[in-house]
């Protein structure tokens, strides 16, 4: 079949250009269409730099042409990102922290899925790989990182840098840690409104002597809310990792977590989804796998949302015991847990590398009273 250019353009007029509010053709997003027999090349320019936006645009074009023009058409889509000239590649807007190369937010839609446990084990695995690592425990109302690193009774020291007093993070297992848990009693509930919590976080972020770090991991609170917005407003987030268990109740909230990062007004790249408590293998039957919470739920969610699946963490008693004892399970050598976290961590590192190579700057967000957040106006 010989494809006709005008037919292709008419089909593309049924698709709304990302962030434009009108169709791809009339908005000027489609810059060129070339047809030859049953082949077509579509050149398009979009403003949203996220990998998710580019993939969504490509899929929409393919599906629309196959549906409205010719189902066997051979289509090539060339997508160009029209990034603002004031935002150089990899220089992210917002207040940066000197010496910190990559900031990765670890989130979950629901509490109790093991987000903090995964954060702790990712951190020690990165340290074992030779990276300089820090954790900011932003789970203000339920800080657990100090317990997992056996530093619950420690307190950050004060050091003077360039004439200014700074907090020195507590360090163990090669990981620097700051948490609100260092400043409260173990039995003391943190009953703060959003502004007070945000102020405390800003102090731990910008009034701390983090030094040189390859990775800062931020252990976010469960859900989507004030703390998340404050963090993404203040910091140059490289990307986000979402943790979920396989059951539908957790997946529903994990989906909301991914959606938060992918909003046009936030636009933080989602590095991938990790499935925690994926299956149970009893020690006496090492070949058996029991899918207590469901099978491959997070993997299927990642496929549905078009984000990377970073791997599975089994439900193993030693992970819980290690966290309670203050020595993350990934530090154990020659175990399936070590292997699982090594594979996941390598995928996270690769996703960060790919993100920094392929995507321009993440936009800063601006908090507003009614809307929650909105995009910073582009010049």
Notes on the structure:
- The protein is of the alpha/beta class and 379 residues long.
- The protein folds into two domains: 5-81, GMP Synthetase, Chain A, domain 3, CATH 3.30.300.130; 100-358, P-loop containing nucleotide triphosphate hydrolases (Rossmann fold), CATH 3.40.50.300.
- The chain is built from ten helices and 15 strands.
- It has helices at 5-12, 51-68, 115-128, 145-148, 194-206, 226-234, 248-262, 297-305, 317-325, 336-358, and strands at 30-36, 39-46, 74-81, 100-107, 133-137, 157-161, 164-168, 170-172, 175-179, 213-219, 239-244, 270-280, 309-315, 365-366, 374-375.
- Strands 8-9-5-10-4-11-12-13 form an eight-stranded mixed β-sheet, sandwiched between helices.
- α8 (297-305) links the parallel β12 and β13.
- α3 (115-128) crosses α10 (336-358), α5 (194-206) runs parallel beside α6 (226-234) and α7 (248-262) runs parallel beside α8.
- It is globular and about 75 Å long.
- The two termini are 45 Å apart.
- The model is unreliable at 84-94 and 374-379 (pLDDT under 50).
- Homodimer.
- InterPro entries: FSCA_dom_sf, MIP18-like, Mrp-like_CS, Mrp/NBP35_ATP-bd, NUBPL-like, P-loop_NTPase, YlxH/NBP35.
- Residues 5-52 form the MIP18 family-like domain.
């Amino acid at each position: 079949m010989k494809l006709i250019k005008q037919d292709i353009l008419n089909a593309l007029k049924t698709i709304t250009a990302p962030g434009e509010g009108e169709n791809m053709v009339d908005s000027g997003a489609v810059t060129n269409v070339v047809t030859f027999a049953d082949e077509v090349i579509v050149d398009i320019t979009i403003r949203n730099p996220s990998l998710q936006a580019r993939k969504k645009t490509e899929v929409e074009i393919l599906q629309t042409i196959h549906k409205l023009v010719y189902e066997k058409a051979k289509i090539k889509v060339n997508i160009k990102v029209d990034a603002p000239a004031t935002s150089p590649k990899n220089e992210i807007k917002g207040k940066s922290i000197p010496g910190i190369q990559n900031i990765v937010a670890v989130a979950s839609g629901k509490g109790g899925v093991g987000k903090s446990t995964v954060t702790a084990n990712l951190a020690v695995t990165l340290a074992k790989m030779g990276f300089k690592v820090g954790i900011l425990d932003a789970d203000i109302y339920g800080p657990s990182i100090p317990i997992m690193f056996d530093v619950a009774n420690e307190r950050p020291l004060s050091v003077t840098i360039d004439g200014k007093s700074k907090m020195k993070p507590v360090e163990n297992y090669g990981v620097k840690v700051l948490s609100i848990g260092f400043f409260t009693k173990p039995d003391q509930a943190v009953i703060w409104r959003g502004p007070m919590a945000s102020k405390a976080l800003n102090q731990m972020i910008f009034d701390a002597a983090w030094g040189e770090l390859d990775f800062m991991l931020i252990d976010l609170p469960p859900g989507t809310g004030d703390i998340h917005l404050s963090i993404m407003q203040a910091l140059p987030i490289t990307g986000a990792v979402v943790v979920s268990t396989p059951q539908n109740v957790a997946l529903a909230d994990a989906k909301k977590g991914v959606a938060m990062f992918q909003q046009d007004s936030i636009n933080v790249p989602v590095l991938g989804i990790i499935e925690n408590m994926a299956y149970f293998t009893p020690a006496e039957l090492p070949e058996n796998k029991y899918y207590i919470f469901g099978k491959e739920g997070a993997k299927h969610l990642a496929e549905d949302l078009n984000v990377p699946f970073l791997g599975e963490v089994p439900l193993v008693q030693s992970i819980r015991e290690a966290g309670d004892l203050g020595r993350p399970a990934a530090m154990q050598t020659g175990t399936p847990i070590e292997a699982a976290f090594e594979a996941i961590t390598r995928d996270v590192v690769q996703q960060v590398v790919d993100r920094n190579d392929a995507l321009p700057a993440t936009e800063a967000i601006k908090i507003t009273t009614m809307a929650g957040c909105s995009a910073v106006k582009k010049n």
